Each structure stands twice: as C-alpha cells, then as structure tokens.
Amino acid sequence: MGKQLIQTHRFPNGLTLVTESMPDVQSAAFTIMVPGGSIYDPPDKRGTGSILADLITRGAGEYDSQQLSSALDDLGVQRHEGVSNAHITFTGATLADKLADTLKIYAHIIREPHLPENQFDASRAGVAQALLSVEDDPRQKALVELKRRSFPSPWGLPSDGELAHLAGITIDDINAHYTAGFHPDDTIIGIAGNIDFDEVRTLIEGLFGDWEPSAGREEPALEFATEKTFFTEQETTQTHLGIAYDAVPYGHPDYYTAWAAVGILSGGMSARLFTEVREKRGLCYTVSASLVGMPGIGRVLCYAGTTSERAQETLDVTLHELQRLGEGIDNSELERCKARAKSSLIMSQESTSSRAASIARDWFYLKHITTLDQIHDEIQQLTTDRILGYVHAHPAASFTVLTIGPKPLEVPRDLS
Fold first, then answer.
1. Which CATH class is domain 229-405?
2. What sequence ranges are listed for the domain Peptidase M16 N-terminal (predicted)?
3. Domain ranges of the chain
4. What is the pLDDT of residue 347?
5. Domain spanning 5-209 has what CATH number?
6. Are 329 and 388 in contact, with CB atoms under 8 Å apart?
7. Using CA atoms, how far apart are residues 159 and 46, in angstroms rounded to an integer?
8. In a 3-state reduction of DSSP, which class is residue 286?
9. Residue 289 half-sphere exposure toward CB, CA atoms < 13 A
10. Tens digit of pLDDT for each residue in 133-165?
11. What is the pTM of this model?
C-alpha cells in the first residue's frame, strides 16, 4: 500500500476535521457526521431524525429547495444524506476544484436550513415509504428485527424510525431535534482527495469556526433485552431466521481476527455456511453472516431464508456450523479470506468517497485513523491458530434467535 498522508485538526468549538491527501486523483469527497442520529429521537417519536435528514436539504441559506438542488447539480456533486443511529450524515464527491464551493453550500444546509413546514408532509411520507419497503423485504425485515433484539435500545432500533410513530411527529419536533443535535462539538468532517490540508483547514474554519457549541445534552440510557428467542407469526410458505451472538467491537485488538472468523463462515460461495447449509443439504435459498457493531459492543448477525418445512433443520444445522468453527480451520479458508480483504483494500485505496467515509468513521469509533497499511498488516498476521484462539475465547453461544414464519422453532436449551 502507498503511504497515506492523513492529518487532523480539532477546532476550538469542538468540530474535528480529518483529511487524507490523494494527489494522484482529480476528485475530492467528504463525509460530514453530525450527532443528530436516531438514538436521540424521543421514545414515542422514533423517526424524527429520519424526517429531518430528508427535510434539511429542502432549502437553506439563500437557496430554496429547487435552487439548492440545482446548485449542487451544477457543481457535479454526487451526494447522499441519511440518518444512522448516532449521526445525520452528509456525503458527497465532486472534482477537487469544486470542493470549496460545494462545502460552502453544505455549510448553509447544516447551519441555516429552512426546514419548510409546507414540505414536512412530503418528507414524512418518504420516511413512511422507506419503512413500508422493509415490510415487503423479508430478509431486511428479519435483520432489522434481529438487530432490535440483539443490541441495547436505542442503538438496536431501526434508524428510519417506527411506522406507528410517524403520525405523531410534528414540524416542531423536527425543529427541536435540529436545535439539540446540530452543533460543532462531536461533529466530524472527513475529506479525502486531491486537496491541500492547510487550504481545507482554512476553508472549514471560515465556514464553521464561529458555529456555537452546544450546552451539552444527556446521552440516552441503554436498555438490554432479557429474552433470547423471538417469534413473529406470518402466514407464508417461507420462514426467515435470524441468529445473533456476541463478538468484539470495532477497535478491539482482536477485531480483525473476529472479522476473519466471520469471513470464513460467510465470505462468498466457498464459505462454510453457503457450502454446508445451502449447497450440500439444500436447506435454504440464502444464508449469510456479518460482523456488526456499535461503540463498545459487537455482534455477529446471521440470516437464513428457507421453506417452512425445512426451517427447523435449517436452524439446527446453522447453529451447528457456527459452533463447529472452533473444531478447526483449513489454511485454504484463511487464504481465501485474506485475498478478499486485499482486494477490498485496493479498491478502497482508489476511492475518495470510501476514504472520506472511512477516516470519519474511524475518528468516531477510535479517535485516531487506522491506515490501509495497518489493516494490511493485521490481515497478513492472521493465522488459523490465532483465529481458533479467538473463537475459543469468544465462542458462538448464548444465541438470540428470531423466527418470522407460520410457526415457532425450538432452540436447544444448552444453546439459547
């Protein structure tokens, strides 16, 4: 990997700028993470942050909604706004010489949004449509519900909100959410591309340097579920299974070892779950696992979609495969996992959008940046013995199991 030039600066008002200079590209990308995510939604008005994320680009500063959209289009900005658990995030990429003008517009969006009441209903309807689309996608629905039950509330709750809550959300709630969350303290701006750090720092200071910090706010309390098995009845010929168990969080010394363990289980068509559950036994039409986390907590989330007649066997075999990983790992499985990681690193190295998002995310989780060389070294140092040591220290056990289908399934007492 080539040497990365990463620089950071924390402004007096608490805003953090993180940059990566990439002189061999012509573009520049940014990720702006403002701490106004769904975990700060009122308990009975889940979806407030999601509506705000849509409404906030419908006019700002000197621009009305159409003028704002046209101005960004004229600059060639490929952009997205959205809500996550902790943040409302703005991302964009454009030619490097258009970055300054683009960020000037985003300063208006973040600091001077119109939040027009006459477009509130349209924004709320868009959020409702997104939530309804989840109901029509069984796999996504199962993973949303599994995350809800395997992570503490409010972090496990769907960031788009709750459909039943949307009718009770008003424009006043949106304004209150904006006022509470949109401050420079804990806001992170990640910028990557053909940039000069000193010029970017001066630009950001001019745009955000006089942005007033907050008076402080209380972080939401965490509520952990006590139940481990969940069933949602649905009259269908299919059954959707979700399985979760503990893992280490991002930033933990064993994080990349945990990542490799999950990659061996579910990293392509040669991975364990695909070959053992789908190919050899034909039990399901899809099966997967992923490593998911929040600050300080990690989980492995698994999904399988199958026929209702084969659902119990699918659950039993999947649980067995998750636990069988500790019995041994073939070196060829690890080498395939490493090859996928190296390919991903190479593609990430060439993408300004990927780098901007990565350095901003790293700062949120770690308060420092993990370089691509460091990740590469972590991957290179992986061995089957090291992965087995991790699996034995953090075994697949104490499962949270979710079933969506016509009947509940049985989880062995010694596994649940």
1. alpha beta
2. 18-142
3. 5-209, 229-405
4. 76
5. 3.30.830.10
6. yes
7. 8
8. strand
9. 27
10. 998 898 899 999 999 999 999 999 999 999 999
11. 0.94
